[in-house]
Design a protein that fits this description.
There is one protein chain. This protein has 217 residues and is of the alpha/beta class. Helix 3 (77-98) links the parallel strand 3 (56-62) and strand 4. The chain is 41% helix and 20% strand. Helix 1 crosses helix 7 and helix 2 packs across helix 3. It has a single domain (3-209), classed as 3-Layer(aba) Sandwich (Rossmann fold), CATH 3.40.50.
């Protein structure tokens, strides 16, 4: 069996990523992020995938994107909860549900936009969720590291996850050094490399995968 991967996400990026990972030899089981808000539902969904895959070598959580941008002054409380608080709660519940199915050599990857680095007008809630999940990823790295479980955040160009309305090109000092901000194939390649034992000595870090647009430390 190939790399046993649990993929949690919804929409084009998540669907394409699953396809690309399968072509790289991953055996992929999926969980809909809408099932993560209630912890018992998250546990049942993850256990169902584990029943077919067994223990997970890799867990990939793609941050859910809102339908489109909303000006900050027009952001209603319900929209904030849906775009910020629910995804962070879901990320927590996913980790809690996955823990019994992870062992030494397993890796957890969170895919978020670089919005918090460069700003994405209209996506304040999503940017806040991304930073919260990055902090959660670091805490998991600290707590589960002694058990051989590693974590990584892969920060992609906002337009890859949120769509053209969130393009980072207007705020960057210059265009991407590599000529484009990244495609699903690029993301799948990075995630695949992270599953290698040769990458096992990195954890809790953020890899910015946007073609060299935001060269932040």
């Amino acid at each position: 069996m190939g790399t046993r991967t649990l993929l949690c996400g919804v929409g084009g990026l998540s669907d394409d990523l699953g396809t690309r990972l399968r072509t790289r030899g991953h055996v992929v089981g999926s969980v809909d992020p809408s099932l993560l808000v209630v912890r018992s539902d998250a546990g049942a969904a993850v256990d169902a995938v584990a029943a077919s895959l067994g223990a997970f070598d890799l867990v990939v959580h793609v941050l859910a994107a809102p339908d489109g941008p909303t000006p900050l002054v027009d952001l209603a409380t319900g929209a904030w909860v849906a775009a910020c608080e629910d995804p962070m709660v879901g990320a927590l519940h996913l980790l809690q549900a996955c823990r019994p199915h992870l062992g030494s050599g397993s890796r957890v990857v969170h895919v978020v936009p670089t919005s918090a680095m460069g700003g994405a007008p209209g996506f304040a809630a999503t940017a806040t969720a991304a930073e919260g999940i990055r902090a959660l990823n670091k805490s998991v790295a600290r707590q589960w590291g002694p058990d051989g479980i590693t974590t990584t955040v892969v920060a992609v160009a906002p337009e890859l996850l949120l769509g053209p309305a969130a393009s980072s090109s207007g705020g960057a000092l210059s265009g991407p050094a590599l000529g484009h901000t990244g495609r699903v194939d690029d993301l799948a390649g990075i995630i695949d490399v992270l599953t290698s034992p040769d990458a096992a000595f990195t954890t809790g870090s953020t890899i910015v995968a946007d073609g060299g647009t935001w060269m932040a430390p």
